[in-house]
Structures are given as C-alpha cells and as structure tokens.
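Quick one, tokens below:
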C-alpha cells in the first residue's frame, strides 16, 4: 500500500532529524545550522504523515442511524 511506504519514509526522515540533533550537540561551530536542518527534516516528515492521513487514508463512514 502506498500509504505504508510513505509513512516508512517519514520514519526515516525522523531518524535523520534525530541524528542531526545529536551532531548539533557535538559540533558547536555549526550547531545552529544543524538544529535548523533537523527541524526542517522533522517538519517534512510531519507533512508526509499529514498528507497520508488526508489523502490516502479512507475517511470514516458516517451513518445517519448512529445519531
């Protein structure tokens, strides 16, 4: 299913973001830049997850009998 593949890529992006955060702690001269990049990668992962939720996940069925 395409949604699962996209979510798998989002998980990979989150791991990259975490790795960049660790590097930011280790390399003070470029810490700010690495932190910004980490946040950008994390935001991209979030956008992929939202996209999957909005476009590839079936909408819940609304039955008028349940009201």
């Amino acid at each position: 299913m395409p949604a699962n593949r996209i979510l798998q890529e989002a998980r990979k992006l989150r791991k990259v973001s975490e790795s960049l955060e660790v590097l930011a702690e280790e390399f003070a001269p470029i810490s700010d830049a690495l932190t910004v990049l980490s946040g950008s990668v994390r935001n991209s992962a979030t956008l992929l997850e939202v996209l999957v939720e909005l476009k590839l996940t079936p909408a819940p069925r609304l039955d008028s009998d349940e009201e």
